[in-house]
## 1
Amino acid sequence: MLVQDSHVDVPTKADGDGSMRLYIYHPTIPNHPHARFPAVILFSEIYQVTGPVARFGRSIASRGYIVIAPSSYHEFTGPEPLAYDGPGTDAGNRYKIEKTLAGYDEDARLAVGHALDMGTCNGRVGTTGMCLGGHLAFRCAVTEGVRVKAGYCFFATDLHGRTLGRGKDDDSLARAGELKAEMCMVFGKKDTHVPREGRDLIRKKLEDERLRFSLYEVEGAQHAFIRDEMSKGRYDAAVTGVCFEMMMELFERTLKIDLGPSEGGNQKVEDVC
């Protein structure tokens, strides 16, 4: 499917008057200008919307999704991506804990709202993201409630340690019980940012809350394994491809199909071979 790139700047209020750029990757079908698609909010790593993030967004869009990628650090810098170098890394990590949780939540609300206001959106929204963006995709699904139907989070950082935002004391995982979306969490087993203890904590919380979720731990995969540029030797195209298809399965089932209202109840599974 063809993809058109654009952007829009929306006003923000949470941390003073400002504006946030939303990068939009929109699928197009020739001769069908009124086609409607589900939307996916794509939250970036600490470097904002870089080349790898944009390519990832276009890949999702080409499957028939409107992808909206916020520039998360609009309170501190312009919408341009930070460099994959020492100064860029330092700035991204600094902004990550200087921004308020109210600012992050406003960003999510504005991005989801913009998607739902688009005449070409079918009214169903999912979230995804990597690194910082994996955490923000999770938090977006928490704070936006029924407006988000599914979330697919790549190596969500700071979720287990609750160190996101100013004061380094977030409540994202603590509020997991508020989730209405079906979630999928993916981690590399060699991710030094989210060690085994952190992954176990996340799994236990989601299990204890009896949520609809999957959690995958990929043998040999490290942090940033989906970044196809400046990944410091960690990019794994094969694993990325598998994870991408699992994400598409989740989104196609929850965002493209009208499932109707849930009738609740636990499905009885027969013990058969």
Note: The CA atoms of residues 6 and 24 lie 5 Å apart.
## 2
Amino acid sequence: MAPIPKMMKAIQIETTGGTEVLQYKDIPVPTPKDNELLISNEFIGVNYIDTYFRTGLYPNPKPMILGREASGTIAALGPQVPGSLGFANGDRVVYMGTSAYAEYTACPAEKVMKIPQGITSSDAGAAFLQGLTALTLVEETHKVQSGDWVLVLAATGGVGGWLCQILRAKGAKTIGTVGSEGKVDIAKQQGADVVVVDRPGQGDVLKTVKECTDGQGVAAVFDGVGKDTFERSLECVARKGTVASFGNASGAVEPFLISKLSAKNAKVARPTLFNYLFTREELEHYSAKLFKMMMDEKFSVRIHDTYPLADVARAHTDIESRKTMGKLLLKP
């Protein structure tokens, strides 16, 4: 392997704000501490949560390097990395952690997974966080059963596309919403059975839900949009169903009276992926399941675009536009 340099390029922010706060600069390559791996990043995932840290919706100490996931190769092992994890220099790996918007990242070894043969590094980088989010939503937040009707908002988005594919593999029936006619066929290819263009004067999501379910509503709503759609999601869910509000693309959901849930004995969840993958055993279980489904079901890994690391501002602008389809990646 090439020698590890002393300095690297990274995206750092010192204050919150718009894309103008994203600084492309030279900083020292981190030294892996106890139980850490130094990873040479090859493909870095861009996720909507990155914009929350940039804008200050999710407070975090500054300065900080953005980024929650990447794929690459192990450049060095820090002290006391457990041999039971089986890591070696040069291994192809994917991880979820922090400070991924950089050429190198020091990451706790317990948060890193080897990429199996048969899956490319770009596909692993594109699939890991969003694929695991979708998988844990349908396994943990609401255990979807074969034959269930489910509503997925933003069905061609990063998590939405994975939800549609996984739900199809589970035998569920999916109603997907999209923002334009141009996304309808893509949502159907991803696995949505019924697709609604969710724009004023074009599609009536609640009407479609009632028509598909004989007025009963869906067993689960997977809503990553947030403020603009939450009340409608409560209307769409069936008796004893679940509204999983897992994102804030339109803003944070406003406070509501919990007594509203009693009309249907409905449940509302606000899950985060990292609390489903808190232990090494949970990460290994769901990673293995995702990788197996990707290969066995021949899932489509839709990559919207791959941007140079220095062009991160354009990537953030694109993801915030809510017009992208699939994963956005950065390449150092």
Note: The mean pLDDT is 95.
## 3
Amino acid sequence: MRVSQCLFGNQGFPQKATGNNRSRFEPGRYERSGVTHQIPKVSSNKTYRARRGPLFVGGLAVYCVVCYGTYLYISLSNSSKTSKIDIPEDVSDRYSHTARNFDSTVDTTEKLMGLGWLRRSLTSQATGHVLEVSVGTGRNVKYYDLTKCSTITFVDQSAEMIEIAREKFKDRYPSYQKCRVLTQSTHDPIPRPAPGGFDTVLQTMGICSTTDPSALLTHLGRLSNPTNGRILLLEHGRSHYDWLNRLLDAHAPAHADKHGCWWNKDIEKIVQDSGLEIVQIKRYHFGTTWWIELKPPDEQGKPNPSSSTTSVLP
């Protein structure tokens, strides 16, 4: 029986609610003509929230897959389909030609992949004397909390790239006077702050354009404070999945020739060969994006093999 019939009768017109035709409503039920009818209970908010959780997680997973698929499609479309290109291992000179358009070129893909959030989570941890290498055009500049930074040193061998980074920093933090900019290779000597060295060393998307990345990381470890120094990396490289690694390998030469980046490097092996202690590793985007925290080896020069690795799928 419809509830509307209790008030309007079978014809749907108002009737005078008198005598036996009078309906009494109580919470959870109503009574008409001496017969009590139970009203079905509506699902509670707790049940709704419990059902909404899996839907949210599932939707987020689909969004991540679509975003990474879009990024991969764009990247592969922009690369030649042939792998028979004779490209030197050192392709860092490409950045001098792409510096002015670099930000506009990578903005869309970084937004789709949520790399801005990863950059923020990494850079916001910088404290004390800070060294950022492979700074590029300064895509991390806006994420610094300068109240936690005693000094900041930026290093990049591309004069065109690092000049853009210098301009960004000056425009955003005009009153900060403890920032120095070095146009040089990270492999070259970098002055360490006294007495212990750099408290935080950052590098984002730098391993891909370095010819000897393990030696580079070892060098960063020597520049770090041996007591509490931290090396924070955001890199991209090989995936969890063989099918994706085959795609990366096939298009790596063309991608390196155009963008100055070898996107198929074995990040795990590079880190292990550096001799640094692995504190934590997180992986995103089918395992191709690496969020890494390292620190200098112990006093005997031996890395601690224990580490925490988290894979965020896909």
Note: Residues 230 and 295 are 5 Å apart (CA to CA).
## 4
Amino acid sequence: MDNLNSNIPYLMAQSLTQTPTGAVELHSHDVGAVNPSTVLVKFLAAPINPLDLLVLRGSYPVKPTHQYQGKAIPGYDGIGEVVECGEGVTQFIPGDLVVPSKFGAGTWRTHAVLDVSSLQKISRPNDLAFGAMLKLDVLPAYFLLEDMAALKPGDWIIQNAATSVVAQMVTQFAHLRGLRSISIIRDRDAASVTQIKQSLCSLGADIVLTENELPEQIPILSTNPVKLALDSVFGSSARLLIDSLAIGGTFVQLGFLGGTNQELQLSSKDLFVRQLQLRGFRGSAQLAQRTFDEQTALMNWMVQLFNDGALALPALGLERLEWNMAGGVENEVRLLTAVDRAKKAVLGQRKQILVFN
């Protein structure tokens, strides 16, 4: 089908869509034409995030806002390039780099015609993967330290799931702020533990422990009072973090990597005697506390930190997967396998980034 209203030679696009069972399918289709208030975006990179998997399971409250043939298009984070602007668009010009301004943008596709209100312009990072992770990894890490507790240089924090990208970003922001951090990782073979500890320390972690090592260290932590605990797992792992907190400390629950059916055991002493604060974290809520211009300035500051070498990509690496429209069945298998791999959450799995060719 010819796109008669477009001057751009991208006549076809590809999208991953969500089935009712949470599987994904690949479709090829017409790009569509811009109108006066929209722009044509070519996506450059998009991650497969734990939040995306919650969306596929129907467990996340914010649903995808874009569809193809009645099927939702997943992908809540990513970075793209504006290639064509509607005649009434003044905010962007071709060549601008943009990220979604709202959840549900549907970044698991090669191209999209989007309303200008759903995009934010950012400066160019030295590696597009950093820009692709801004909204769901980098910004939340910053908010966790800025918004969840009053912290000053020298204060201690503790976090589990420390190999996650959010946790690795937390470690770096903590180091920049002069905070001391304890990173908890899952138990695995000795060689892997050693390698992971070295990698996390290279990002600025002060102490790295496995979950089995943490209980024996809790009495020692009393000499270094922990003010903030960040939990991405829940259940028994979260309980260890609560045990590690000093009197008056803050426990923040931000994820369910251990499963949504787990329970967190609390004692009356946790609240009455120890005066702990329990908080839930959603990055979108913290982002909404900033104006649009404040959000953009914050992201550009983070890009500058990255370009200057003050922030780094995850020390444990990323897995970049090529999305090649001309790749036929091989391309389709690669994409569907990547989503299935992410769902299995195998120990040691690195974050996967879809890189559009």
Note: Residues 17 and 68 are 7 Å apart (CA to CA).
